[in-house]
Amino acid sequence: MSRRTFAIGVDFGTESGRALLVDLTNGQEIATAIHLYANGVIDEGLPGTNIQLEPDWALQDPNDYLEVLKKAIPAVLEKSGVNPEDVIGLGIDFTACTMLPTTSDGTPLCFLPQWRNHPHGWVKLWKHHAAQDEANQLNRIAREQGYTFLDRYGGKISSEWFFPKAWQILNEAPEVYAAAGRLIEATDWVVWQLTGIETRNECTAGYKAIWSKSEGFPPNAFFRALDPRMEHIVDEKMSRTLLPLGTKAGGLTQEMADWTGLLPGTPVAVANVDAHASVPAVTVTEPERIVITMGTSNCHLLLGVEERVVEGICGVVQGGIIPGLPGYEAGQSCVGDSFGWFVEQCVPASYEREAANQNLSIHQYLEQQAARLLPGESGLVALDWWNGNRSILVDADLSGVLLGLTIATRPEEIYRAMIESTAYGTRVIIENFQARGIPVKEIVVTGGLPERNKLLVQIYSDVTGLPIRRSGTTQGGALGAAMHGAVAAGTSAGGYASIFEAASHMAHLHEESFTPNPQIKAIYDRLYQEYLILHDYFGRGANDVMKRLKQLREEVIGAPK
Amino acid sequence: MSRRTFAIGVDFGTESGRALLVDLTNGQEIATAIHLYANGVIDEGLPGTNIQLEPDWALQDPNDYLEVLKKAIPAVLEKSGVNPEDVIGLGIDFTACTMLPTTSDGTPLCFLPQWRNHPHGWVKLWKHHAAQDEANQLNRIAREQGYTFLDRYGGKISSEWFFPKAWQILNEAPEVYAAAGRLIEATDWVVWQLTGIETRNECTAGYKAIWSKSEGFPPNAFFRALDPRMEHIVDEKMSRTLLPLGTKAGGLTQEMADWTGLLPGTPVAVANVDAHASVPAVTVTEPERIVITMGTSNCHLLLGVEERVVEGICGVVQGGIIPGLPGYEAGQSCVGDSFGWFVEQCVPASYEREAANQNLSIHQYLEQQAARLLPGESGLVALDWWNGNRSILVDADLSGVLLGLTIATRPEEIYRAMIESTAYGTRVIIENFQARGIPVKEIVVTGGLPERNKLLVQIYSDVTGLPIRRSGTTQGGALGAAMHGAVAAGTSAGGYASIFEAASHMAHLHEESFTPNPQIKAIYDRLYQEYLILHDYFGRGANDVMKRLKQLREEVIGAPK
Question: Does residue A308 lie in a domain region?
């Protein structure tokens, strides 16, 4: 590359969108800008109305996504002083499954006066959990009718995914379903808005909409079995043409060029998902290195050589992360979420005071105290199921356990035991891959948690026995999106021929590496055995106490099951 | 009784002694006075020396007991204005096993200059836990040699009891053991000081020194098997003459009369133990009504008709509580202790602030919040083993469990689950008695906890399905001691012929009664089944994770096993 070229990645998160302008030669992050969604997560009332949402609903306003484009892209251009001519590609990444109904020309139904006051006309955010009944029925029917696609998803389709959400629209608002010319992932919708061309990407189709490269979508008969009105959902409202990641979706429209300050025709990559886009951004484009995005929950992404059935994963999608390779996704439902719960609900005032005295956050203070403990010193072992268990048990009705409590137990001991339990949970996931012949030899962690908490990273290394590197960027999603933008642009435009080439130039890791301490690993091996025994006892049906307690709870509070 | 007569009970607790002057006609508590022990619990350094005690040691100074007599008895006489001539009896109750070495004339070795600087010369308080090795060996030898006396004590002699403590003296300080003309319970020693006559009571001998009315002490051969030097411990340093509760030990000496302000010759009852003395003081002198003294731990006392072997009790002693009836004692190691732990270690600052705003203690605030919950609403179940489990598993290496945690779990839910778990533990004890044909039809609770926490009492009623009455006195031990003093005095002196007669006049209950709510009981039945499954799984060898965690902990911190 003779001329210095740049790409922009736009990361659409849960509360805000962020644009990142990067130097294509070395991945240097030149400028970043965040735009908060005006309507954020809509989970109480529909904006501008008196309409209350039911519990478990979570919507968004697609206009907030457009505002990110209009505000954050011009902002990074201005901050960086980069000439728009030198921005040779654009990519986006998004939460998923975050989906919306639109007209055939891509207009969100909620933009239209006749649907604006209808909750089903809006975007259903990834954490919209009101389609559980549909998910349960879908899983039951798929099992009863012997569909093998469930095997690709650990045996269960989540209520967060595309078809349960679509089916909820049909069940509760058939008029909205009928009016929806298209049902589309928000990430694909934004690319449509950027380019004027409707495309669909293989990643969200594979991980969220039961599509596979070899088998396509489930057959129409399956959808008919769900509801006859859904029989032709794919052909009527979606698309059977799915594009590999890094493909050019199209060029920027004139209108979008006017909004963003970029040149019309600037290549735009097909849409992508945040965690998946991060993988090449943290240098991983080959098997054996698992990427864990650590936050409120953990998302594990791993490349394989051939597609295999693996127990309890979230999904395996050929080309779902990196073209040509099967991408495995697994997950832990509760990581930072449970630490946050602990800090909010269980840390005494004396600790708050001491943390304040030392000018530390309570998390930092607890980390400091917990770091002084030896593994095994607390006598505690926990099951990290505060939000249930995704991988590998795929059971939302499991719950958390603390075992080994005494009146000498201190808060930092519980805190450390909770961190350790999430590390054991990750080890279960890794050993589950290994048992299926999918090797894991290194961990790369990304996300806010490992940035802030080195103790946690070291514990993960000691528990798993694997070396760990941390992401070199705090904006893996946006960087990965920009890299895909550079690939979409291609070499002729000053970009890259492949994501492999892009990663070799643009991706980087934090220099510091974490390696397991063999003595500590030996102690954790013993603790992990205890975790496994409890994991299987409570998680595999020997004692379904957790389910019975949830059942009793629902009876007692009279909530719908 | 034509003339108004009185008795005094003196209750020797862990930190202080309390005298209570009561009206014999109706049990009215006329005056009370507390004297704090100057040396309290001696668990760091020996008073007046630089000698440091090892961990797990807990000593007392016998002079503190004498000071209680000198200060608290005159104080109640003065406060009440009662004529010493009208005080017709005196009784005491004490913690147990709290024991000391003395010369043959009853002088505590620690009063003598040559032994004053020797820790083994002092009183070993009930919670002196440094004789665990001796207890372990004693239990092993008794099992190996087939002694059936273990059956009376749930299969295990505690390190807190008489012979492990005596043996520790011999092991670590044979010179102290040799110099000890007598080894004696502090409660018997105080009666000796009051009367000038050495007596031994059946209660402490039975519950703490492996004595039974039918079999006596273990044979000399057993003690020889422990250590040849201990072969004749009973004949050399104790007594085979054990007196029933309520027996007159003797009359007050002139010296004691001078100290206390009572008349010389005032009848003094043989010694008693606090919890046991409380039983008639809360109206219980017959089978089928279990008395639970609730505090940091729970002590359960129940009368039977005939002596039976019951799994995991602390002991059964013929006449150990009420003459003529077998008295069963069971216990839970951790009740208020774990609530205290929770409040100190796990309650967030926001709750402290809210409690302060409402002018409530944090316990009161938590009780108020927890009382708003429905049973089963929290989805939690706990195992109440923060201090191990005494009855019925007799296993100090068990530990606490919280199960069912989610990120929605609130502190008051954990607090309530911990209360509930102690109620389940009590139900296990009650059902264990019932399964052996020893009926339980009512609960009487006494101690500080039920005074303060009505929610707890109601939960115990709902969980056990039994009506509960609360003690009418906050000073059950002292009232019971005074009642025994009245029995020791006898009818001729204006006292009572029996503890039954004394109880019928002097004992009373709080008017309010707690009865189980059938709907709530039905929910608790389901939760109790979950508790039982976990109780047996973790407590009966299916998964010894708790022991392995403690073992690992000890290895890791390098502490002696």
Answer: no
